[in-house]
Amino acid sequence: xxxxxxxxxxxxxxxxxxxxxxxxxxxxxxxxxxxxxxxxxxxxxxxxxxxxxxxxxxxxxxxxxxxxxxxxxxxxxxxxxxxxxxxxxxxxxxxxxxxxxxxxxxxxxxxxxxxxxxxxxxxxxxxxxxxxxxxxxxxxxxxxxxxxxxxxxxxxxxxxxxxxxxxxxxxxxxxxxxxxxxxxxxxxxxxxxxxxxxxxxxxxxxxxxxxxxxxxxxxxxxxxxxxxxxxxxxxxxxxxxxxxxxxxxxxxxxxxxxxxxxxxxxxxxxxxxxxxxxxxxxxxxxxxxxxxxxxxxxxxxxxxxxxxxxxxxxxxxxxxxxxxxxxxxxxxxxxxxxxxxxxxxxxxxxxxxxxxxxxxxxxxxxxxxxxxxxxxxxxxxxxxxxxxxxxxxxxxxxxxxxxxxxxxxxxxxxxxxxxxxxxxxxxxxxxxxxxxxxxxxxxxxxxxxxxxxxxxxxxxxxxxxxxxxxxxxxxxxxxxxxxxxxxxxxxxxxxxxxxxxxxxxxxxxxxxxxxxxxxxxxxxxxxxxxxxxxxxxxxxxxxxxxxxxxxxxxxxxxxxxxxxxxxxxxxxxxxxxxxxxxxxxxxxxxxxxxx
Amino acid sequence: xxxxxxxxxxxxxxxxxxxxxxxxxxxxxxxxxxxxxxxxxxxxxxxxxxxxxxxxxxxxxxxxxxxxxxxxxxxxxxxxxxxxxxxxxxxxxx
Lengths: 595, 94
Fold this sequence. Notes:
The structure holds two protein chains of two kinds.
Chain A: E1 24-30, H1 36-44, E2 61-67, E3 70-76, H2 88-98, E4 103-109, H3 113-124, E5 130-135, H4 137-142, E6 145-147, H5 149-156, E7 160-162, H6 171-177, H7 191-205, E8 206-208, H8 215-224, H9 228-275, H10 279-284, H11 301-330, H12 333-345, H13 354-362, H14 364-370, H15 377-390, H16 394-404, H17 409-433, E9 442-445, H18 453-488, H19 490-506, H20 513-518, H21 523-530, H22 537-549, H23 554-564, H24 566-594
Parallel strand pairs in A: 1-3, 1-4, 4-5, 5-7
Antiparallel strand pairs in A: 2-3, 6-8
Helix pairs in contact in A: 3-7, 8-9, 9-11, 11-13, 11-16, 11-18, 13-14, 13-15, 14-23, 15-17, 15-24, 16-21, 16-22, 17-22, 21-22, 22-24, 23-24
Chain B: E1 11-16, H1 20-28, E2 36-42, E3 49-53, E4 56-60, H2 62-65, E5 69-72, H3 82-87, H4 89-93
Antiparallel strand pairs in B: 1-2, 1-5, 2-3, 3-4
């Protein structure tokens, strides 16, 4: 397996989890959104991201599990509806299966048996022992669907275990049945014959009784309503951002700021006294502003570095992922895809692209990885470029208050409005100029589910941990580098070199070049570096917009390279730089002419 | 008639689906000839059609929906529907 396929190790500072050759290989397969990742977490004890929408696992995740006293390598294969691939995930699924395995654990959604049996039959036609987990039997019962497990076992010729993965029901039985996994007697057949066989199996094993319209069904109807659905969609997004700001700022004001101001500053002052004047103090604590340490402006590794990451960005990470994880597990995101399809269609991407776009508001890395749910290369290019240009990640959003907040909330809102317009215009331009073909939206919309508090908090913790592991070294290293380069005088030379663009075209003082170039490292430090320059409100707005649109941070850069290839990555970067300069220039012009 | 022409909440049987990649994707999801579906709604401005198949919701792009031929079977089951109708009355008026 080439490393191109997985991508989960990239940008996360993690090593590849693959094990030495010779261990047993177990595959976890099934349709999208049947709970494979929940099984993976249960079976291996490690966490795999799971959500209530098809396509959460776009690469594959591997871990180790134990059964019957043996150690095995378990692969969480991306969800596929069929092994005659219709998208990237299905291509990967087929390739992994064709490489062979000792056992396949096939997860089947009991609430949609007929559709799930298509891929199940295709897997059973292979010469590999299979054990089936009939998942979500509780939800099926609520829906009035009753499945005769014994008969299904007879029909398919392999063990079938009813499970409810989210609660853990049936998991231990599944593990004990793994030794009984068998090769099914089902032989390869044509598509027609397979549908007929499935029809016959369904008529033998499944009975569906009537059920009443539930409250959840009614909420589902509202979100699919032509007018209400759109209103609900925009309300959810706007409310979402307001709640994130409210919670993020709340944590900053009431928790992190008091901690930093009452305790950390005192410790730093002591340290500053011990260190005395010198380069070490400059790097660790930074320059003193009016004889005191200023957490936002001193620019030391231990002062501004730690404050930016833990004091300002972390609260927003918590706020953002609390909201997003809830919407994911509830199952709202695919409905947003339906609401946005008509708009996104005009950009040459279909509505499902809204899901990676939303992920991009947290961090562009998972956002761009998430574009794998889109089928064509053209769509992935458009979506990935739009995310890196027009979607401000949480690091940028968290620093908006520090940079623009003092000039009024209007300026903070202006950043969103400008970026949204850029996103619209750039999307339209790319659609009209890029060659290639974009497929249409055809997607299953999962039922709403009340998220379990445990799954939600696990996921939140997983994402926070990920941020800390990934961001901490880069933030600290970035601040360290700025200080070194500043001492060496490199920063001044850079500012002079870029000053025609900055001073003439963007109307910014030359030293603004430094933070914008530093944006390559992390956007949050770059935003922090803008503060001590003393820009006017309009200059700050131009600088923030240019910073948000131009080169992505290093992690996003690597992922773009991996996902798009070097040629398309360069093209995407070109679009980013031109779009940033044009927007910044126009804004500057606007301020000069109008005001 | 095609899926676009079908009115909201009407049931129909799928008569034909487009060939090619879109057709394969529809089939993989279980939307194939002979299946009975119910149209839930169509989003404005050329947005997707939401439909119900075996108790599951699916969304199909406007352009694809126009290529899915269906035969309305609704007249046969009008008698069972009032309860559902009532619960959906209020969104209809907005």
